[in-house]
Design the sequence.
């Protein structure tokens, strides 16, 4: 059974603490400390402490966070705390991040120096520490030991360019039980979960608006043209949600099929993100295009998150090559692998 | 919180054992060259195939043993049907009876009807069609005009049905008729009153079956002209006037299965072959996106199957699966036609053959069993918009 108790309580927590005011303040650079304290008190940061076996719970919490557009590096902190625990690092207090998060970025160790590039590091400059993966090793880099060029995504969430890393941080080889690609994959699934939550929220906002907004003497939701579009939005939201939940179940159980499920979930959620944002704006009309209306907190995240931890094109190429390698007779066994 | 609910489901271990058994059976069938794969359940049929799988207990497998069934779970049936469809096996002959007519009789039929029809269906000997649409009644099913007038010992049925697939090969058609008039209830006309379902013997006097060729020149549809056809009262399904409730009660079963997203599966499979082990970037991208869609649709469809197994009736979720599934089925040939290296149609080539079949049959996939517009209307109602 789906964990509705966890989902509902997370939804309440984020609903109570992520207000339009908090979102606007976060976007202009004010760290939402009260929200973060609530998230930490609820125990969400350590949900992956024992590793990906708790992925279903992580995805449930992140769907709720995405639903309310929570402007905090929750997925990144979950990942970082799992990696720190696995490497037996002392886990720093506060928000954490991981790098690299772009599939083509590589950090190299040249002599004693970490070098290379890592773009779009979430909250890179703000996080208390960054967990950096380079050449099969894990580095814990406290704030101040790394230089970032500040940047942000379309939703105004910090996405910083890593410039340089000083020495003197904790380091350990990547534990055997963790594959080098696993961080990118789990990150992709976690972003997909946030997308799924945001699509469900966009469905709720759009349905409510269609029932309230009156034109030609009746709520616009009474027009079939609008109804058909909202049905499509609902279908996309449903597909994104089922994809991330199913992939999380495969990851949690440690099944080999997660190798198909996780890329599939990021692709499907990413495709849903674009369609949902498109329909939600069309239904909302001009008011949805204003700063005043809160729809953009969701849609700008949908447009951003679909690109992060690998966009649809990246994962489609990877999944497509995998299917091609397996060949036509293994297509169906791959899709149905338990 | 959400208007839709897709509970996660895991197939039971016996389902996976069964899958291996079905795959081995299919491998034997293919090795013997008994059929050419085509995943469209609506147009791919072979009576001898139906009888062979009946021998394995794979028709009516969820029904009680006393009616010839195997008392298996709905999820096990799901495994068998998805394996047959993905392999492109000719399931068409028994499909309607197995999915629809048998369960209808099991739920609403009399004991005598169950004993008369169910064992014969499970033996692969009796095939069913569905007589619902009429020349003036398509999506607006409640407007049908075929009349069943009470006569001594039964009904005299007159009217015309259309799009009755394989009425020329099936033995019976579950036929929706008017046994009574619409009634005014609380000042509103209740159009769903007065409808009943009859088990129509397609060889009965007064039944004319006339072919309607489809755009590919094939004969699967028929026009069914009923001219004062006598149907004995013991062929009435359930109570008189219960037809509408019966028709709508099983929609989740009919709209959420693997047949709703696998119709173009052979195109996808042949595209994998054509793209090769080292596909070019456009082919890899298309393949990855289609695999993601297929995988997700199967998870959604399985989730509905799990809820059906648990005794729920997720009609909204089933409508979501069918609309998304139909769109995917139609998208597959559209995507691959401009990505795959193409060959002349004159050469026998499995990819070109599957593609041509898909392009020609695709329009029917988003019409049969509820048009996409009707499905979206159901979803909109679920959203509270209607």
Sequence:
């Amino acid at each position: 059974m789906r964990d509705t108790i966890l989902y509902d309580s997370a939804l309440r927590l984020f609903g109570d603490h992520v207000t339009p005011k908090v979102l606007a303040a976060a976007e202009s650079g004010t760290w939402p400390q009260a929200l973060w304290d609530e998230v930490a008190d609820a125990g969400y940061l350590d949900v992956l402490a024992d590793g990906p076996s708790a992925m279903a719970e992580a995805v449930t919490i992140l769907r709720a966070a995405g639903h309310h557009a929570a402007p905090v590096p929750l997925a990144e902190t979950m990942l970082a705390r799992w990696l720190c625990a696995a490497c037996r690092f002392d886990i720093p207090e506060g928000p954490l991040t991981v790098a690299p998060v772009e599939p083509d970025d590589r950090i190299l160790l040249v002599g004693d120096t970490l070098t290379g590039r890592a773009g779009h590091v979430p909250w890179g400059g703000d996080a208390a520490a960054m967990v950096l993966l380079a050449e099969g090793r894990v580095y814990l880099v406290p704030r101040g030991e790394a230089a970032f060029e500040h940047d942000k995504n379309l939703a105004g969430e910090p996405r910083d360019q890593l410039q340089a890393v000083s020495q003197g941080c904790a380091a350990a080889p990547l534990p055997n039980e963790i594959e080098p690609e696993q961080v990118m994959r789990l990150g992709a699934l976690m972003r997909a979960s946030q997308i799924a939550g945001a699509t469900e929220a966009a469905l709720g906002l759009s349905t409510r608006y269609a029932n309230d907004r009156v034109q030609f003497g009746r709520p616009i939701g009474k027009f079939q043209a609008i109804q058909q579009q909202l049905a499509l939005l609902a279908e996309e939201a449903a597909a994104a949600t089922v994809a991330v939940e199913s992939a999380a179940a495969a990851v949690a159980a440690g099944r080999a099929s997660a190798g198909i499920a996780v890329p599939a979930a990021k692709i499907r959620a990413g495709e849903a993100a674009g369609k949902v944002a498109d329909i939600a704006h069309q239904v909302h009309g001009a008011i949805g295009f204003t700063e005043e209306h809160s729809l953009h907190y969701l849609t700008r995240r949908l447009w951003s998150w679909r690109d992060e931890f690998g966009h649809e094109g990246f994962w489609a190429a990877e999944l497509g090559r995998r299917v091609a390698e397996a060949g036509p007779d293994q297509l169906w066994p791959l899709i149905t692998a338990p | 919180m959400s208007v839709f609910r897709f509970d996660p489901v895991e197939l039971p271990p016996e389902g996976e054992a069964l899958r291996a058994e079905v795959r081995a059976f299919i491998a034997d069938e293919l090795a013997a060259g008994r059929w050419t794969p085509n995943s469209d359940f609506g147009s791919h049929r072979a009576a001898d195939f139906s009888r062979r799988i009946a021998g394995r207990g794979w028709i009516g497998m969820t029904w009680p043993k006393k009616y010839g069934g195997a008392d298996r779970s709905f999820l096990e049936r799901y495994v068998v049907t998805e394996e047959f469809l993905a392999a492109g096996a000719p399931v068409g002959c028994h499909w309607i009876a197995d999915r629809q007519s048998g369960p209808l009789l099991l739920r609403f039929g009399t004991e005598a009807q169950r004993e008369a029809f169910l064992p014969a269906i499970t033996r692969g000997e009796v095939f069913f069609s569905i007589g619902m649409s009429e020349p003036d009644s398509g999506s607006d099913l409640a407007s049908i005009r075929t009349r069943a007038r009470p006569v001594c010992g039964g009904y005299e049925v007159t009217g015309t049905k259309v799009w009755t697939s394989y009425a020329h090969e099936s033995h019976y058609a579950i036929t929706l008729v008017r046994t009574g008039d619409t009634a005014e209830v609380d000042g509103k006309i209740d159009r769903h009153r007065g409808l009943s379902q009859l088990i129509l013997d397609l060889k009965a006097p007064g039944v004319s079956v006339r072919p309607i060729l489809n755009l590919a020149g094939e004969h699967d549809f028929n026009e069914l002209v009923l001219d004062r056809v006598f149907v004995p009262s013991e062929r009435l399904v359930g109570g008189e006037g219960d037809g509408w409730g019966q028709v709508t009660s099983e929609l989740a079963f009919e709209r959420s299965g693997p047949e709703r997203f696998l119709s173009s599966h052979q195109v996808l499979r042949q595209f994998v072959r054509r793209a090769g082990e080292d596909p070019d970037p456009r082919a890899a991208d298309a393949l990855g996106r289609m695999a993601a869609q297929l995988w997700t649709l199967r998870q959604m469809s399985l989730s509905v199957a799990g809820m059906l197994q648990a005794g729920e009736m997720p009609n909204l979720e089933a409508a979501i699966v069918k609309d998304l599934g139909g769109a995917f089925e139609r998208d597959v040939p559209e995507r691959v036609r401009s990505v795959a290296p193409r060959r002349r149609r004159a050469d026998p080539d499995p990819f070109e053959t599957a593609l041509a079949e898909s392009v020609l049959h695709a329009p029917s996939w988003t019409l049969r069993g509820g048009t996409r517009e009707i499905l979206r209307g159901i979803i909109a109602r679920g959203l509270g918009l209607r």
